[in-house]
């Protein structure tokens, strides 16, 4: 049985002030008990209904007594939900304080409405941030007892990882707002006249509606978000780079790019207009954005001309920053000289912070280098990027900073080819692989990870692969792995964690290494118990197989595993041995051993020769 708040209020006759206060408390406790009951908080519901009955007795509201008693008596006959609702509205309950709010808070809560609750304090807001990890909408309008929104004793800022909408309008005593909200889209602060300290870590695209909040101005917000510095960087970019960054900004700042009417302040508005002014054929580009089916796949292409490093005409290796006295002030020069690459990637990072559309991001061959650390923040809060290509960027040891945040992302494909990743980077990557549950494809080729001096890299990778449960394709081509590295990858005597224990990896590319014939045997021995790996590429590995005895060894090592495709091409394998391998294929019907380039390569070479001869004629 339910009773609306309007019908409850209408049953009160005129009373003295104390009885009227008790009647309001009765109504509030009844509402609180009803909401608790709907969310399966039975003990709290009983407590609130009991308090409501006590207040009804004190206020002599006879009609309410029977209703409340009926609610208290039916608890044993009703089946209640086991999980609380993801949307809870506790608005206009004057008795709702920090203690009474706590039972309603849970990690899956997405929307919480607390408008008109004068007993809610800053402590409640901090607890909401700590407990409600999935919260997207929070309304605190007319919560007059909130003086500040900040973190705990050690944290200056309150943290809301997934918050998108925040309403703090008409909070008369609110003076300080310190907030980390990487996905915030709308902040409403109407009539917050006393709000004087604003420390907001949010995307540049956040829309702030703050009418009559006299101390929140566009100039203040631009200074807070560092817009001036970003604009000075944007003024040095050519049209192509500006277009790339605008594509990243477009999903979240569509109204600004299309010059639509905007209610409120957007901190990055002036930056977007600067980028638009830098591009060629602006109207055509905007039409292209409007008609684009999807902007989920983006690639930053750096031309060879932009990779020059001739000082002083160019101040970086990512983009060509040409000094122009008319466009570049003297204060810009230290920025461009000291942070040329970081400055450019910083804009890309800022755009990524606002983007919830891109799923495939290609930053290959952009000469990012040590600036990869700038991408740490946007990736830490990104839930859409599944494909990331960072190949040919000379990242080195700096990858360890990125590896720490990638473990919590939905990343499936990661390309780190040719990045000179060091032992520290590999250790961070190994830790990432152990905990990651989404990655299926990983390319670590051409990183020089192997050799006697770097044997620990193979050990770290072997242990991580053994514990990983999601990886299906791994490329370790061109890493100078030798026979001992092959053994460490496949089977380590000191640990149960190795490739032999992996149950998900199906494709492994170890081509262009130096494992030799004995490395091949050690590797296959380690795979005796592995029933997942089906495709193994050991082409170009200095494998010498020129005796029938070695064929017998190879045959014995291939007995028990699940390999169906073994690539031994570009190795020193004699014609007699190739024939013996053909017989081995016949004895194991599912096995295919490749020892040459194959007919399709020969045909391709023949066709190229014909084209070349035709062009000469």
TrEMBL record:
Alphabetical keyword list: Cytoplasm, Cytoskeleton
Transmembrane segment boundaries: none
Location in the cell: Cytoplasm, Cytoskeleton
Cellular compartments per GO CC: cytoskeleton
Protein name: Uncharacterized protein
């Amino acid at each position: 049985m339910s009773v609306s708040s309007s019908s409850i209020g209408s049953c009160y006759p005129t009373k003295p002030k104390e009885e009227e206060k008790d009647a309001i408390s009765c109504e509030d406790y009844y509402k609180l008990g009803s909401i608790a009951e709907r969310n399966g908080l039975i003990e709290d519901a009983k407590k609130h209904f009991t308090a409501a009955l006590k207040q009804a007795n004190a206020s002599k509201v006879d009609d309410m007594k029977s209703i409340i008693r009926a609610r208290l008596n039916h608890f044993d006959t009703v089946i209640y939900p086991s999980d609380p609702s993801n949307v809870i509205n506790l608005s206009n309950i004057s008795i709702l304080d920090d203690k009474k709010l706590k039972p309603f808070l849970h990690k899956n809560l997405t929307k919480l409405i607390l408008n008109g609750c004068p007993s809610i304090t800053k402590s409640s807001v901090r607890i909401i941030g700590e407990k409600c990890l999935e919260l997207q909408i929070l309304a605190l309008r007319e919560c007059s007892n909130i003086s500040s929104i900040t973190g705990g004793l050690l944290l200056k800022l309150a943290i809301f990882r997934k918050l998108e909408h925040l309403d703090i309008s008409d909070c008369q005593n609110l003076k300080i707002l310190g907030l980390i909200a990487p996905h915030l889209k709308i902040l409403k602060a109407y009539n917050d006249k006393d709000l004087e300290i604003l420390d907001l870590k949010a995307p540049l695209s956040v829309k702030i509606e703050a009418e009559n909040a006299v101390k929140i101005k566009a100039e203040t917000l631009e200074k807070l978000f560092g817009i001036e510095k970003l604009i000075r960087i944007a003024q040095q970019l050519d049209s192509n780079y500006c277009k790339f960054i605008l594509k990243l900004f477009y999903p979240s700042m569509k109204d600004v790019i299309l010059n639509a009417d905007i209610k409120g302040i957007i901190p990055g508005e002036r930056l977007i207009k600067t980028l638009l002014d830098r591009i060629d054929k602006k109207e055509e580009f905007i039409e292209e954005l409007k008609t684009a089916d999807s902007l989920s796949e983006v690639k930053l292409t750096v031309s060879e001309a932009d990779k020059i490093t001739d000082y002083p005409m160019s101040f970086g290796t990512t983009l060509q920053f040409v000094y122009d006295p008319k466009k570049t002030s003297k204060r810009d020069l230290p920025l461009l000289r000291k942070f040329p690459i970081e400055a450019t990637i910083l804009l890309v990072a800022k755009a990524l912070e606002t983007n919830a559309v891109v799923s495939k991001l290609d930053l290959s061959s952009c000469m990012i280098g040590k600036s990869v650390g700038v991408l740490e923040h946007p990736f830490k809060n990104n839930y859409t990027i599944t494909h990331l290509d960072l190949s040919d960027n000379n990242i080195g040891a700096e990858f360890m900073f990125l590896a720490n945040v990638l473990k919590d992302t939905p990343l499936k494909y990661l390309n780190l080819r040719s990045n000179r990743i060091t032992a520290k980077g590999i250790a961070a990557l190994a830790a990432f692989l152990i905990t990651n549950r989404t990655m299926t494809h990983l390319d670590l080729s051409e990183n020089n990870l192997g050799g006697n001096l770097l044997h620990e890299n193979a050990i770290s990778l072997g242990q991580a692969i053994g514990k990983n449960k999601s990886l299906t394709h791994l490329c370790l081509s061109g890493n100078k792995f030798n026979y001992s590295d092959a053994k460490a990858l496949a089977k380590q005597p000191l640990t149960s964690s190795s490739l032999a224990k992996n149950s998900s990896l199906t494709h492994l590319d170890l081509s262009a290494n130096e494992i030799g014939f004995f490395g091949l045997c050690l590797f296959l021995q380690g795979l005796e118990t592995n029933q997942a790996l089906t495709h193994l590429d050991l082409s170009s590995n200095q494998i010498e197989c020129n005796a029938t005895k070695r064929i017998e060894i190879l045959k014995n090592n291939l007995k028990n595993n699940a390999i169906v495709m073994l690539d031994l091409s570009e190795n020193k394998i004699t014609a007699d041995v190739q024939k013996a391998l053909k017989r081995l294929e016949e004895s194991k019907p599912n096995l295919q051993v490749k020892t040459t380039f194959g007919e399709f390569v020969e045909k391709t070479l023949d066709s190229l020769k014909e084209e070349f001869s035709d062009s000469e004629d």
